[in-house]
Amino acid sequence: AYNQAIGIHLILNNQSKTIKNSSLPGPISLLRQAWKIYKINFKTLIVISLLGYSGSRISNIISFLGGADFKSPLALDIPLIIVTTVISFWGFVATMYAIKDEKKGINIREVLSKGLSKLVPNLWVIILSVFIIFGGFMLFIVPGILFLVWLYMGNFVFVSENVGGMNALLK
Fold it and tell me: Which residues, at least 6 apart from 19, have a Cβ–Cβ distance to it below 8 Å?
């Protein structure tokens, strides 16, 4: 029954539409595909991961170097938080593009430039989904959880299908 064809029947705007998939891939098949992508883009993915990780750890390093009783001024903390968040988010978006273009074996510079150019539109998708999810939680817990599950893949749709804003969240 697992490998049988899966059909989904949708009724949108009084029009009937059937979407059919032949079968869902198994977990072993998904792991093999992920490993293949990782092997092709090993260097690119490692460098981008280090970029994202270093962005999130810069503030920890500054605090560590300052000693246990280091109190950084607020004027330093706010720009530091903004810079580290942007660097981490840039690494996240670039990683999604490296995974999307897995068969090309693209270089680091190309992925980072794609990630930088799509940073603000992807941030807009995140802001929209956060407001919708927060509104769902304000209504009650269950709508918030439903919105969270429905809108979780908005960033990935934005990257893979090149649609932004609400269009990415509605797909």
Answer: 7, 8, 9, 10
Give me 145's structure tokens: 């959880």
Q: Which of 53, 81, 87, 85 is nearest to 73 (CA)?
A: 81
Q: Which helix (H) or strand (E) element contains residue 150?
A: helix 141-151
Beta strands in 1-147 (DSSP E): 6-12, 15-21
Contacts of residue 151, Cβ cutoff 8 Å, sequence gap at least 6: 129, 132, 133, 169
Contact 132, 147 (CB under 8 A): yes
Q: H-helix or E-strand containing 122?
A: helix 119-139
Q: What is the pTM of this model?
A: 0.66
Write out pLDDT tens, residues 98-136: 887 766 667 788 888 888 888 888 888 888 888 888 888
